[in-house]
Design brief:
Elements: E1 2-9, H1 24-32, E2 38-44, H2 52-56, E3 58-66, H3 72-81, H4 88-91, E4 93-100, E5 105-112, E6 122-128, E7 134-140, H5 149-165, E8 171-177, E9 196-201, E10 204-210, E11 217-218, E12 221-222, E13 229-234
Parallel strand pairs: 1-2, 7-8
Antiparallel strand pairs: 1-13, 2-4, 3-4, 5-6, 6-7, 8-9, 10-13, 11-12
Length: 236
């Protein structure tokens, strides 16, 4: 079985460089236009979780890392005044995994991977049911370029979370924003050069492609400060 796994840090729906307007719906529609088997998103505003399904036509499973500072419509309205300025501080921050509606998927929950006194970062996991089944985990680690061992430790906590969930020999995909290029994860595939990655265990990566800048440009606007990453994963 081959799976197209895509991961994208959507930068709260902002552009590069940041603008007042938001582009999150455009991003979701673009990232799902060719029907990937799995789409892992990071830095999703909490208010958008309930809209991802209708925007994409896919099943969306979200997990909140940082709750919104204001309830519902208020945080959406205030953030909308200037997307480049009001980001996770008001609108919160979440991860989400999207899969086709034709595929049965189970939500396996989420867990905090950041240290208690740091901004809350999480890993979430789902199981793609079937024969074979696949556990997909989506993480967003802490950005700490002064100490790369911080995001490495969070990636390692993510693997321990997945190990508790995965069945013996079950294929595992760990995708997301690692915020370090070499997370040093034993038992997983070798990383790509870059902080956004897809790593696998009990599976094989056949192809990897970081989207060139022009693929995420619309009307002269570069969507997000991260490029999507595509991985073709073979599961037997």
């Amino acid at each position: 079985m081959m799976l197209l796994v895509r991961t994208w840090n959507v930068f709260h729906g902002n552009a590069s460089p940041p603008r007042r307007a938001g582009f999150l719906r455009r991003m979701v529609e673009l990232a799902t236009s060719d029907d990937p088997d799995v789409l892992c998103l990071q830095e999703v505003p909490v208010w958008a979780l309930r809209r991802l399904g209708s925007w994409s036509g896919m099943t969306s499973i979200g997990a909140v890392a940082r709750p919104a500072a204001r309830p519902g419509a208020i945080s959406t309205w205030v953030t909308g005044l200037n997307q480049g300025f009001f980001r996770s501080g008001l609108a919160g921050q979440a991860n989400a995994v999207l899969v086709p509606r034709s595929r049965k998927v189970s939500d396996l929950g989420s867990e905090q991977i950041s240290a208690p006194r740091r901004e809350r970062r999480i890993v979430q996991a789902v199981r793609l049911e079937g024969h074979p089944s696949v556990v997909v985990a989506n993480l967003h680690a802490t950005n700490d370029f002064r100490d790369p061992d911080v995001p490495r430790a969070e990636a390692q906590r993510s693997t321990r979370f997945v190990e508790r969930l995965a069945r013996p020999g079950e294929a595992t995909v760990l995708a997301g924003d690692f915020n370090v290029a070499d997370p040093l994860l034993e038992g997983f595939s070798a990383p790509l050069e870059g902080i956004d990655d897809v790593l696998v265990r009990n599976a094989t990566i056949r192809e990897r492609m970081v989207w060139p800048r022009e693929l995420r440009m619309q009307d002269g606007v570069v969507l997000s400060d991260h490029a999507p990453l595509d991985c073709l994963v073979e599961v037997s």
